[in-house]
Amino acid sequence: MNAIIPINTIVESGCGAPPEIIRERGQREVFCGLTGIIWMHRKIQDAFFLVVGSRTCAHLIQSAAGVMIFAEPRFATAIIDERDLAGLADANAELDKVVQRLLARRPDIKLLFLVGSCPSEVIKLDLHRAAGRLDKQFGPKVRILNYSGSGIETTFTQGEDACLNALVPQLPVTDQKSIMIVGCLPDIVEDQFARLFTEMGVTNVSFFPPRNSRDLPAVGSNTQFILAQPFLGDTLRALESRGASHLSAPFPFGIEGTTEWLATIATAMGVSQELFDKVTAPKKARAEMALAPLKETLKDKKIFFFPDSQLEIPLARYLHRELGMALTEVGTPFLHKQVLEKEMALLPQNVQLSEGQDVEKQLDRLKLAKPDMVVCGLGLANPLESEGYTTKWAIELVFSPIHGYDQAADLAELFARPLRRKAKLQFDTEALCN
Predict the structure, then answer these.
(1) Considering the entire predicted model, what is its pTM?
(2) Where are the alpha helices (DSSP H) in 74-222?
(3) Calpha distance 40→186 (Å, rounded)
């Protein structure tokens, strides 16, 4: 939990937007951006993530990843110890030795990220300069880049944003008209979207990041890109600086979001409405059939979102509009209006939004709202469960495949399962008492 000097709560309201946005800058409870390595290292299959940090950083990554003894993961930690902190060793020379040993042991590495952490930033270790020096030494065989995974001022999903932002300058140039899908997607989801694009006749489409670092997509003034994740604000600005144009759309969660997201791409690439409907209709019908039984569990249930992943607003839209859940408060760490413009327009006018966090104040509002379900981080889940609340871990929603038609019911199931579990426990308890 990071303590931030609190300032007065700011309430915004405006025409055409939900009437109230509470902005808070107090105590917050989040993971740091190092957590993003857990899904990034699985996505870019020839990349390695070397965290320059403390033993605490190493324990965090290992715990989050659930590393098996049979696997050799593509991440590690260069430990900053007492000798480094006391200035008895040259931190840059020590880092060079670690990188040399790593690349000698793992010749399969083609892209190495030096990932900054709170400890490395506190001691002012210039990893950007170190990455440039090492890149000259080991390139072009191995490309070496740097980004910050520190959680001092960010939330955990922004680790992906920082990583992709560091990759944007490496993208080759093109003048061809193309579509770029931006944001890490599980391979199964990426394959599903790729098949849909093929059926629509959209061929010049790429995914960023790619599965192989040597397949970086090209970008230019004729490139249009669309975000697959709502926490990529810095990457959005970096791509626009390369001349690419941003396509704004709701995010592909649920049937409605997926349809609008795909329709935005189809329109940009000149796909006819007739072909679009032909391709998407059977997928929508299958998803609607799978969602039907889950609506009975979720309809009219009140849900409260603590700020955690920046997925909160798109998920709230999906749960409310497609499953009938009642939104009490939807909190998000950062409310990026350019990214969430289309999502905000689909929220009910009376929903209370909050940006940032003051944990104690938000807990007070939670008790007044008395929701049926609370979406929150791991640090709050157990205490809230002990008080009788039903919780859903926000981080599970980042790790799970939840995009697209085929995952619409899987996403709903993640919310329905805790409610069914609580109902069963109450039934069993009542049966024992009787």
Answers:
(1) 0.90
(2) 82-85, 91-105, 118-122, 127-138, 158-167, 187-200
(3) 10
